[in-house]
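Supplementary Note 2. Why include the ligand at all?

Several targets in our set were suspected to adopt different conformations when bound, so apo predictions alone were not considered sufficient. For every target with a known small-molecule partner we therefore ran a joint prediction. The input for NAP is given below.
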Amino acid sequence: MSTMKAVWISKFGGPEVLEIREVVKPEVAGAQVLVRVRASALNRADLLQRAGKYPPPFGYRQEIPGMEFAGEVAEVGPGVQMWKPGHRVFGLTGGEAQAEYVVTHERLLAEVPGNLDWAEAASIPEAFITAHDGLWTQAQLRPAETVLIHSVGSGVGLAAVQLVRAMRAVPYGTSRTADKITQSKQYGLEEGLVVRENFDDLVTEANKWTAGKGINVVLDLAGGPYVRASQKLMALKGRMLLVGTVAGGSYELDSRFVMGKRLQIRGTVLRARSLEEKIEVTQSFAAEVVPLFAQGVLRATIDSKFKLADIAKAHERLESNQTLGKVVIEI
Ligand SMILES: NC(=O)c1ccc[n+]([C@@H]2O[C@H](COP(=O)([O-])OP(=O)(O)OC[C@H]3O[C@@H](n4cnc5c(N)ncnc54)[C@H](OP(=O)(O)O)[C@@H]3O)[C@@H](O)[C@H]2O)c1
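The joint prediction is reproduced in token form.
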């Protein structure tokens, strides 16, 4: 039986519980592909999984985290039609991507454009698929509309800024950190506001940004008070996508805004979706987003890179809330 190196959550706790272990290498069957992972990226879900607060979907080992990767096809199952050994691929998985090898369904992969290195490619799937599915597919964003992105300097936030621009719409954002607003402008952010406890200025500012029309689409990556404030600043028939809960999981809605403005408020998650749904978002990503990377319209947003052995430091970096974009693990 062959083995591989993998990140291993030895018990639930802080970054110190993370180890690198020699574990059984997965094998391919049917329409599966074995990928030699060259890089993976961190997500908030990995931090929660490490703390015992977010188990992976059925079929994935709790001990090995990792929800996205880029690498080379190493082996293909007998039913695989799309890939051959050596192809450069990237994608999402329910878990186990922070290892030398990962097995996945062939239709959950997209081809990495030649102009992206491994670290850049690994930083893309979770952030860009979440933002693309939320904004382009679910919110049906249209050119010239306005979008407000909460936690704009996050991985998903910077992907969203670029996808809003790619749609010829106008991105605004919030962060608790002034420098992240400034830095986000290099990715296309029009204007932003630093918010902490007090959201009063946000409604005034959004009215200024939109000449009183209100915001068409809110991409909420924070939750709690951000949602409460957002309902007040939205345009008639605005769409609000609820994607994150770092600032809280409960929302107070007021029918004056929700009904009066005929708002659509929708929650979304990627990890818990069925195989068919994940294939659908991956194929839309491959068709609509990947070519924009190949053309240089979109850019990877890397905050920092760590070697596999420094996985604990990578978790500390993401937990610091100082990151701008993605934390990448090179394998
Ligand atoms: N539903 C899904 O399928 C899905 C998929 C991917 C991600 N997500 C969620 O989307 C969000 C963004 O993900 P990401 O990986 O891009 O995040 P990230 O890069 O880790 O950035 C998150 C940012 O949120 C801000 N933040 C942290 N704690 C906060 C708090 N208590 N109150 C307000 N802001 C806080 C911090 O920026 P500042 O302090 O500078 O503002 C932090 O840098 C997360 O909530 C994540 O769980 C959901």
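The chain has a mean pLDDT of 97. The first strand starts at residue 3 and ends at 9. Comparable summaries for the other entries are listed in the accompanying table.
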